């Protein structure tokens, strides 16, 4: 059973009088531990697909199963819980809270856990551990404006990790970064997958970034146009 | 406890968020502070007025009883019904009610009806001769001393009353003369000495010719602003030294010509006795330690005096016990038969009246307090709109943050709570600051305007509660709006 599975997922928006078909029936299964990169031009539906995977949006039609459980019909609060416990998000624009230290930014998801209130000291410890995973313990007290773009994105990754999710979803995580930093970030994803068995889904429109994935899915006009599983070796940056 | 609460992640978050917009937060806080302070100050003014009304009521002498010599009742109005005069003060409500109908029986040279007097009540006063009506003066100093021995009696003052003309230089003033006791100032709580002092027990014992004059008399004889104490005035062709000027301490009672209190002169009753060669008292004024005791005291005094005067069961009293309530009835212009019926049938009349009076006044001042508070509440509403404004601003500014929080697992209620806490934090901080400012304002009002202000713990609590409620009320809409945001739209917000 795949970890994430979509069955004929369609998404339509009403814009004025006409209907925009963002997704026209996408059926995909993503197994635990896969590193999926999604590519496609703007308007291809890849972001919409990501939102549905991330439980930020619900499909108009079709089913989305997570561990075999249909989450597409869950009420909003349950979806929030799934996002908190199962998923970690990384955004193109980092979305760090300004005038807030890196450590506190990382702690954020722990404020919303429903496994019980996490004590302040415990939050701090977990956030530190997440920062350590991205190699930023020495920047814990820095505010976002004191960090470089790459460092900010690493803080964002630490934030995505802190609540121990099974899946990391990244929407163009390298869009605002230069090439060298982009590769650093992708290597972190690859390492996290290797070390923690995380399932990672990354949207990108850069082919060389997409090459980090163990599988690359192409979107066009709301449909999957290609779905390629790479050699395991290809996913190892050192051998590329 | 507070520290733990402050370090709660949501509260911490709200405070940090507010810290980011210091100027706006400060201005909003100011608005809220002013609102709360105004409400509190207005309530303090209202409560102060309420309290001073209560004090004035007490000062007006609701715990007073007066025993008058004689039991005169108007012949003209007498319908011949039998009135039992035994035992109960209420049955002895037999005062002159229509003075105009009765010719004075006794005539004193000072009460020359041909005399032209220049104050409005002089004519009325000329007929005011209760002392000589009904029977001879029957009360004695010993009666007063005996009453003093009754339990529950606070002060006792015997009095002799006459009309008198006071001369100073070429001026003269026709006024009321009270020969009274040194304890009078303790009984008259509404009194205040504008100048000098009351006469002393020593002066009373020696029957000295000292005079305490009412403010009206002082004004008429010496003119406003002229020092009266130490002046020598003439009364009954006798020189008197003015030792004090008495005026009203309350705004309920203002000195007025012909008012019997401040258009009057006071001397030791011993002096009156000596000069007029008298030995009886016209009346005895008594105060009860507690105003609820007035009824009981009236009964006991009646019994006591009947015994002392040797009045048999089949004879009427030769005195009249009056309470404030019966006084109010007799001077209230009621037809005497009605007044008598009321006094005879309503048990513990003065208690009822006291309670009613207190209730009415209390209700009136409470209404005023709420009116003031309602006016002040307008500023609180303005403060609340400020809170709404800054919270909306905060929501708009932080739309992406809201999106992010939703993405990492915040429920809409978490977001709502966050913004509500922000709004409430401002309003409560404004509340605390407003309470401080309001207390200061109340003190300033009391000092500069001389208004009584009372900041009660309840009003402080209320102000704090209202501040919190304003925060919740005006924070609700922006917070709700934040919580209803679509995370995707919020995340893309620029």
Features:
heterodimer; A: 240 residues; alpha/beta; Rossmann fold; six-stranded mixed β-sheet; four-stranded antiparallel β-sheet; 8 helices; 10 strands; 32% helix; globular; disordered C terminus; B: 494 residues; alpha+beta; 2 domains; six-stranded mixed beta barrel; 17 helices; 15% strand; elongated
Physical arrangement of strands within the biggest beta sheet of chain A: 6-7-8-3-9-10
Helical run tally of chain A: 8
Return the CATH topology of chain A: Rossmann fold
Distance between the termini of chain B: 40 Å
Radius of gyration of chain A: 18 Å
Structural class of chain A: alpha/beta
The pLDDT mean of chain A sits at: 89
The first-level CATH class of chain A is given as: Alpha Beta
Main sheet overview of chain B: 6 strands, mixed, barrel
Query: Helical residue percent of chain B?
Result: 40-55%
Task: Tell me the overall shape of chain B.
Answer: elongated
The CATH superfamily name of chain A is P-loop containing nucleotide triphosphate hydrolases
Descriptive account of the structure:
With 240 residues, chain A is α/β, with parallel strands linked by helices. Chain A has one domain: Rossmann fold. Chain A has eight helices and ten strands. Chain A starts with a strand and ends in a 5-residue tail after the last helix. The model of chain A is unreliable at 233-240 (pLDDT under 50). Chain B is an alpha+beta fold and 494 residues long. Chain B folds into two domains: 2-57 and 358-492, no CATH class; 63-350, no CATH class. Helix content of chain B is 51%, strand content 15%. The two termini of chain B are 40 Å apart. Mean pLDDT of chain B is 75; it is low at 73-135. Classes of the chains: A alpha/beta (240), B alpha+beta (494). Chains A and B meet through α2 of A and α2, α14, α15 and α17 of B.
């Amino acid at each position: 059973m795949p970890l994430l599975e979509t069955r004929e997922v369609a998404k339509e928006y009403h814009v004025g009088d006409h209907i925009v078909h963002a997704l026209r029936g996408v059926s995909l299964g993503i197994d635990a531990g896969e590193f999926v990169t999604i590519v496609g031009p703007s308007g291809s539906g890849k972001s919409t697909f990501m939102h549905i995977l991330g439980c930020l949006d619900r499909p108009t039609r079709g089913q989305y199963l997570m561990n075999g459980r249909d989450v597409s019909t869950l009420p909003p609060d349950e979806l929030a819980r799934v996002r908190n416990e199962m998923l970690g998000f990384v955004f193109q624009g980092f979305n760090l809270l300004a005038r807030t230290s890196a450590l506190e930014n990382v702690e954020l998801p722990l404020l919303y856990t429903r496994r019980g209130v996490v004590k302040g000291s415990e939050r701090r410890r977990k956030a530190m551990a997440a920062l350590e995973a991205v190699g930023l313990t020495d920047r814990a007290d820095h505010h976002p404006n004191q960090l470089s773009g790459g460092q900010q994105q690493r803080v964002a990754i630490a934030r995505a990790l802190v609540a121990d999710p099974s899946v990391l979803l990244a929407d163009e995580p390298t869009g605002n970064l230069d090439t060298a930093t982009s590769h650093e970030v992708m290597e972190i994803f690859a390492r996290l997958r290797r070390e923690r068995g995380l399932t990672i889904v990354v949207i990108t429109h850069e082919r060389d970034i997409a090459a980090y994935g163990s599988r690359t899915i192409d979107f066009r006009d709301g449909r999957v146009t290609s779905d390629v599983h790479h050699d395991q070796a290809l996913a190892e940056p050192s051998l590329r | 406890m507070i520290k733990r609460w402050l370090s709660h992640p949501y509260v911490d978050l709200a405070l940090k968020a507010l810290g980011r917009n210091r100027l706006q937060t400060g201005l909003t806080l100011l608005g809220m502070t002013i609102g709360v302070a105004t409400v509190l100050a207005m309530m303090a003014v209202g409560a102060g007025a309420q309290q001073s009304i209560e004090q004035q009521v007490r000062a007006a002498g609701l715990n007073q009883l007066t025993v008058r010599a004689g039991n005169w009742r108007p012949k003209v109005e007498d319908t011949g019904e039998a009135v039992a005069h035994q035992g109960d003060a209420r049955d002895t409500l037999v005062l002159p009610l229509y003075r105009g109908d009765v010719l004075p029986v006794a005539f004193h040279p000072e009460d020359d009806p041909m005399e032209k007097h220049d104050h409005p009540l002089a004519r009325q006063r000329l007929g005011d001769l209760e002392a000589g009506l009904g029977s001879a003066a029957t009360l004695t100093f010993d009666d007063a001393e005996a009453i003093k021995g009754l339990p529950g009696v606070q002060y006792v003052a015997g009095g002799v009353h006459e009309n008198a003309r006071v001369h100073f230089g070429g001026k003269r003033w026709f006024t009321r003369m009270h020969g009274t006791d040194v304890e009078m100032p303790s009984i008259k709580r509404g009194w205040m000495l504008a100048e000098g002092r009351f006469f002393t027990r020593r002066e009373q014992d020696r029957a000295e010719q000292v005079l305490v004059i009412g403010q009206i008399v002082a004004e008429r004889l010496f003119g406003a602003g002229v020092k009266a104490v130490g002046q020598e005035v003439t009364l009954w062709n006798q020189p008197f030294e003015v030792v004090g000027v008495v005026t009203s301490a309350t705004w309920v009672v203002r000195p007025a010509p012909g008012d019997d209190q401040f258009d009057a002169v006071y001397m030791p009753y011993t002096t009156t006795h000596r000069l007029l060669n008298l030995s009886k008292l016209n009346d005895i004024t008594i105060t009860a330690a507690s105003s609820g005791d007035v009824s009981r005291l009236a009964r006991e005094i009646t019994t006591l005096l009947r015994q002392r005067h040797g009045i048999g069961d089949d004879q009427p009293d030769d005195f009249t016990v009056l309470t404030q309530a019966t006084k109010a009835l007799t001077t209230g212009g009621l037809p005497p038969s009605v007044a008598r019926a009321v006094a005879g049938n309503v048990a513990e009349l003065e208690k009822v009246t006291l309670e009613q009076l207190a209730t009415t006044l209390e209700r009136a001042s409470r209404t005023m307090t709420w009116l003031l508070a309602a006016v002040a509440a307008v500023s609180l509403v303005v403060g609340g709109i400020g809170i709404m404004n800054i919270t909306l601003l905060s929501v708009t500014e932080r739309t992406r943050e809201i999106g992010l929080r939703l993405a990492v697992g915040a429920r809409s209620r978490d977001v709502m709570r966050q913004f509500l806490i922000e709004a409430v934090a401002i309003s409560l901080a404004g509340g605390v600051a407003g309470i401080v400012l309001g207390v200061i304002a109340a003190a300033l009002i009391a000092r500069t305007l001389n208004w009584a202000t009372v900041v009660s713990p309840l009003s402080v609590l209320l102000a704090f509660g209202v501040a919190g409620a304003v925060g919740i009320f005006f924070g609700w809409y922006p917070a709700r709006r934040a919580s209803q945001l679509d995370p995707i739209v919020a995340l893309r917000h620029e």
